[in-house]
Specification:
Layout (H helix, E strand, L loop, with lengths): L15 H5 L9 E7 L5 E6 L6 H12 L3 E6 L3 E7 L3 H11 L7 E3 L3
Parallel strand pairs: 1-5
Antiparallel strand pairs: 1-2, 2-4, 3-4
């Protein structure tokens, strides 16, 4: 045992892999929310999509869901897609089917 040398690490950081991948909690989420307007009218918002191609995504969503919508610039969250009506589940299914996001990256909010 005299000839064998054992290296004992002086500093071990268990989060080095997470830091290399972009930090703890670096997973980007897509937030789908619903807002009440007047009466029975509702508004579905989709936040967190990359700003590249939002107009094309909006066009496809409007065509599939048979509703109107637009892209709005928000101070905190950047560009957000707004759709008329309650389309939370349909939007999440369409985004997953199109291959834009994984199912575990979507968070649906609302009442």
């Amino acid at each position: 045992m005299i000839g064998s040398e054992i290296e004992i690490p002086t500093h071990f950081d268990p989060f080095t892999e997470a830091k290399e991948l972009g930090g703890v909690g670096a997973k980007e989420y897509i937030h789908i929310r619903i807002q009440q307007r007047n009466g029975k009218k509702k508004l579905t918002t989709v936040q967190g999509l990359k700003e590249l191609g939002l107009e094309k995504i909006l066009k496809d969503l409007k065509k599939e869901l048979c509703c109107n919508g637009n892209v709005v610039q928000d101070k905190e969250h950047g560009k957000i897609i707004q759709l008329q009506g309650d389309h939370r589940k349909n939007v999440s299914q369409l985004l997953v089917q199109a291959g834009l996001v994984m199912k575990d990256q979507i968070k649906i909010h609302g009442f």
